[in-house]
């Protein structure tokens, strides 16, 4: 290469770095990209190609290599040098044998040839890619879509189990992959602290780990107990090892935590024995595992085997079956929700399901109880599949006590005694007590201060109930009158001067609120976080929204009302709910009382992107849905980051059951795949 070529390369790299930094700013910080994603990717690709051509011009600090600090709207994106792939799953010995046979066939080996493997626990956390240059931790990215993840470097630096510097000899450049996780004990302690502080609880250790790592304020990450097991390699500038176990040894030498349960395995019989042993060990481990990953030991063979689609041919995840346990259904409690919906909840004799103590399970609705004939006193089998709420899968009818009677669903509200009506064709029975029902009032207040709404620190369900019982809270506006009672609050049991003054401060801080949060907080039926955002974006300001809604409520068939129905994704049923809210003078009075106490910010384009519980999940819709068409449900699920398929398999995460769901519901039950009712789906989708 001539000096002139090198100079030209240097100039182009510098110009590209500037250009990339400019577009990063436009995209991340200002949310106003000036070029398409494809054009941006082309710039990055050209940049990488030049770096590969002129390795000594590589500048680790170049803004184009390390997208700067996390911008207000979220994390910066980092592209992985080698894509982060997923693993194919096996659910039994036959599928595992098929994996081995495939690998042997691909390598042209006889069917009985030796193919040594390593078995490693499959850690249920979130995968991370760490880049080290000259032995120094340079950057860390989440998996993201596999090609591009989020830049969580600053957060990763707070984890003690991750070395900042590699100990001992190492290649100049190396990508190391592993799983960030939280132990079961730390998860329980974190949830206890969250509950005490009136903060949202995490569903499982994996969500807790992901939520703790992906914090824009790294001080929060630093305060959480996170750990990591290293288990795989991305790109490396030099040789590291010849075998996977040799590679794990190197990782240990460099200072990483490597799972001590990993074992070399000579053949399928040893793997089967290992799988069985891990299945038993699982509940005793301090962290969640959901299977065992088997990897071909010889790295040269791994290279030859390569990848198919998004998964390697040299590894497979043999998953454990869903965890089940048997316990007694002690009682059926009826919860009254914010909109009056009566939801049956099973109170169970507490039982350990795979290391998590379960005392409650959803019974979905009245029809489900009748269909399955759940009775108080029954012995039931329940199941926890991934992060889904425990479900009762069967009644062990041979253990049913003599004299038990079918459950009779109440027709009056257990909280206020009003009639609980079930309109024809609907599955949900609702309390008709409206604002006189204390349960609905309390639930509305709890909803009002919840995380996606006003997000008031220190004001948990328990405190809301206490303040409600004292008569201090009747309407949402009363929350902003609590600081005036600070002295009384500090004298209450469980409170002190500091916690009471913190509460006052947290409330005062929320006098300024984004429009979409405000709309969501009102708890209007069918206005979940997604619809609240749509409305906020559409109307822009509180004033405009209020005026248009009132105009819509005043005249049936008015332009405003029709316009409402045609906002993308809102639909007429939701327009009707909004109208219903605004025709009630007491609701408008509450709204006006609140707006006098608050500064409601206009909607901007940079409202944080929503993160959805179904993102990354595989969903199947079956039967007919009442509130939306199937194509609509599919489109919504896809916008929320889920994949929708037509057939139920073991890979399916959730089957949403509409009315008259037939063979797919049966198949889901056979495979132990989690199911949800339409109402539960609406909640997951943020519509309620
Ligand atoms: S190896 C090329 N080993 O499982 C694939 N993955 O379902 C490299 N995981 O995305 C992955 N424990 O997040 C590997 N011992 C282990 C693992 C493991 C957990 C996760 C990882 C991966 C997912 C695939």
What features would you describe in this structure?
The protein has 688 residues and is an alpha+beta fold. The protein is 38% helix and 20% strand. Among the domains are: 3-65, Helix Hairpins (Orthogonal Bundle), CATH 1.10.287.610; 77-308, DNA ligase/mRNA capping enzyme (D-amino Acid Aminotransferase, Chain A, domain 1, 2-Layer Sandwich); 515-601, DNA polymerase, domain 1; 607-684, BRCT domain (Rossmann fold, 3-Layer(aba) Sandwich). The protein is built from 25 helices and 26 strands. β15 and β16 (356-362) form a beta hairpin. The longest helix is centred in the first third of the chain and has 27 residues, at 3-29. Residues 85-87, 120, 122-123, 127, 179, 231-232, 293, 312, 315, 317 line the site of 2-(butylsulfanyl)adenosine. 2-(butylsulfanyl)adenosine (IVH) binds at residues 85-87, 120, 122-123, 127, 179, 231-232, 293, 312, 315, 317.
Set out the fold topology.
Blueprint lengths: L2 H27 L7 H17 L23 E3 L9 E2 L2 H15 L9 E7 L2 E8 L2 E7 L5 E3 L2 H4 L16 E9 L2 H13 L8 H9 L4 H6 L3 E10 L7 H11 L8 E3 L2 H14 L7 E8 L2 H7 L1 E2 L2 E2 L2 E5 L3 E14 L5 E12 L2 E7 L3 H7 L6 E6 L6 E5 L24 E2 L8 E2 L6 H12 L11 H9 L6 H4 L6 H5 L6 H13 L2 E3 H7 L7 H11 L2 H13 L4 H8 L4 H13 L1 H13 L1 E3 L16 E5 L7 H10 L3 E2 L9 E4 L5 H9 L2 E4 H7 L4
Helix pairs in contact: 1-2, 17-18, 19-20, 19-21, 20-21
Bound molecules: 2-(butylsulfanyl)adenosine (IVH).
């Amino acid at each position: 290469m001539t000096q002139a070529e090198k100079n030209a390369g240097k100039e182009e790299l510098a110009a590209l770095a500037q250009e990339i930094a400019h577009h990063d700013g436009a995209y991340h910080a200002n949310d106003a990209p000036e070029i398409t994603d494809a054009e941006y990717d082309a710039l990055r690709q050209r940049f990488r190609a030049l770096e590969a051509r002129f390795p000594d011009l590589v500048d680790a600090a170049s803004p184009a290599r390390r997208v700067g600090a996390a911008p207000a709207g979220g994390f910066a994106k980092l592209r992985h040098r080698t894509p982060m792939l997923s693993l194919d799953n096996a659910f039994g010995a036959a599928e595992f044998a098929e994996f081995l046979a495939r690998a042997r066939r691909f390598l042209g080996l006889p069917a009985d040839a030796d193919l040594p493997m390593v078995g490693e626990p499959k850690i249920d956390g979130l995968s991370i890619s760490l880049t080290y240059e000259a032995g120094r931790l340079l950057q860390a990215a989440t998996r993201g879509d596999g090609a591009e993840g989020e830049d969580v470097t600053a957060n990763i630096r707070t984890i003690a189990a991750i070395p900042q510097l590699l100990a001992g000899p190492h290649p100049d450049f190396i990508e190391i992959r592993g799983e960030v996780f939280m132990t079961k004990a730390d998860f329980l302690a974190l949830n206890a602290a969250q509950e005490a502080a009136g903060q949202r609880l995490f569903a499982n250790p994996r969500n807790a780990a992901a939520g703790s790592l992906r914090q824009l304020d790294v001080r929060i990450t630093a305060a959480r107990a996170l750990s990591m097991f290293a288990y795989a390699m991305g790109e490396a500038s030099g040789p590291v090892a010849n075998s996977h176990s040799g590679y794990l040894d190197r990782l240990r030498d460099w200072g990483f935590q490597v799972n001590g349960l990993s074992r070399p395995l000579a053949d399928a019989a040893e793997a089967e024995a290992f799988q069985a042993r891990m299945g038993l060990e699982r509940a005793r481990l301090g962290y969640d595992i959901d299977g065992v990953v088997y990897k071909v030991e010889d790295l040269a063979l791994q290279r030859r085997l390569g990848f198919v689609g998004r998964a390697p041919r040299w590894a497979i995840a043999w998953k454990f079956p869903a965890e089940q346990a048997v316990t007694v259904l002690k009682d059926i409690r009826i919860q009254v929700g914010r909109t009056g919906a009566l939801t049956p909840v099973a109170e169970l004799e507490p039982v350990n399901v795979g290391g998590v103590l379960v005392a409650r399970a959803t019974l979905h609705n009245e029809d489900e109880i009748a269909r399955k004939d759940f009775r108080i006193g029954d012995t039931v089998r329940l199941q926890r599949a991934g992060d889904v709420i425990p479900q009762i899968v069967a009644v062990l009818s041979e253990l049913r006590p003599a004299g038990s009677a079918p459950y009779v669903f109440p027709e009056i509200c257990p909280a206020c005694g009003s009639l609980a009506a079930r309109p024809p064709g609907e599955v949900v029975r609702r309390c008709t007590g409206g604002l006189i029902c204390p349960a609905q009032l309390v639930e509305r207040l709890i909803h009002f201060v919840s995380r996606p709404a006003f997000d008031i620190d220190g004001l948990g369900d328990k405190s809301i109930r206490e303040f409600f019982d004292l008569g201090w809270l009747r309407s949402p506006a009363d929350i902003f009158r609590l600081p005036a009672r600070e002295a009384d609050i500090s004298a209450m049991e469980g409170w002190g001067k500091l916690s009471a003054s913190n509460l006052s401060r947290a409330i005062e801080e929320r006098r300024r609120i984004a429009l979409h949060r405000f709309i969501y907080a009102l708890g209007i039926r069918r206005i979940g976080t997604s619809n609240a955002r749509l409305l906020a974006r559409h109307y822009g300001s509180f004033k405009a929204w209020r005026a248009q809604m009132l105009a819509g409520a005043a005249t049936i068939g008015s332009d405003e009302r029709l316009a409402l129905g045609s906002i993308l994704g809102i639909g007429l049923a939701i327009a009707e709910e909004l109208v219903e809210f605004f025709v009630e003078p007491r609701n408008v009075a509450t709204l006006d009382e609140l707006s006098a106490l608050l500064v409601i910010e206009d909607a901007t384009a940079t409202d944080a992107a929503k993160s959805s519980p179904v993102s990354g999940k595989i969903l199947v819709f079956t039967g007919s849905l009442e509130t939306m068409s199937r194509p609509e449900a599919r489109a919504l699920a896809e916008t929320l980051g889920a994949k929708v398929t037509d057939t139920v398999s073991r890979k399916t995460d959730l089957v949403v059951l509409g009315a008259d769901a037939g063979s797919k519901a049966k198949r889901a039950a056979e495979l132990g795949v989690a199911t949800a009712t339409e109402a539960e789906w609406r909640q997951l989708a943020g519509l309620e």
